[in-house]
Write the structure tokens for this entry.
Amino acid sequence: MTTTTEPCNVLILYFSRGGATQQLADAIAEGVAQAGAEALLRTVATDNDAACSRDLTVSTDDLATCDALILGSPTRFGHMASALQKFWESTSNQWLKGVLINKPGAVFTSTSSLHGGQESTLLSLALPLLHHGMLLTGVPYSEPSIHGREAGGSPYGATLFNEDGKLHPNERKTATALGKRIAQIALACRQTQFEDSHS
Ligand SMILES: Cc1cc2nc3c(=O)[nH]c(=O)nc-3n(C[C@H](O)[C@H](O)[C@H](O)COP(=O)(O)O)c2cc1C
């Protein structure tokens, strides 16, 4: 067992053009803080996407230094946005070094229609995390907010149905619960020596 006084850093990496996905990122960050960890909000380089300019652009070093990673994107034809896919395609060195192996990970998305591909996008976001050896985590059904029928929220991850540009209270609760859960798992993982750990 190891102990450390370093802050537990949860990287929240997202893309957002209109700000909906960013609202989810912020609610997740609240949950991370509730667990006593530090949320690092980062985005990806884009040409003209205003909502992304609030936060720093992610660097591949951030993958090595984070304790956990929560990845979010608006749904684009049932898939993550290409700017995020492009970022992952620049991470071969980090994959070779195994910098994300055994770190907790989770995903989130927003859509403009309730059945417009939230789960397929969450799965697309999950794929690079699995390839990087992360411990993929969702939202358990013990979380009451994912049982609502009028808004987003899924066992696969946090979601926002962007009907009026605002987070529904249930969507906020799911996102905050996910952030808190990942941060708690990250804190627990820091006390664990994995035999195949690369970190
Ligand atoms: C190119 C493109 C493709 C989209 N595809 C979908 C889709 O498949 N399903 C859906 O419900 N919404 C789709 N949308 C709408 C966005 O997912 C939605 O407005 C989202 O909340 C935007 O998030 P943002 O404000 O973080 O950019 C699409 C938007 C664009 C620009």
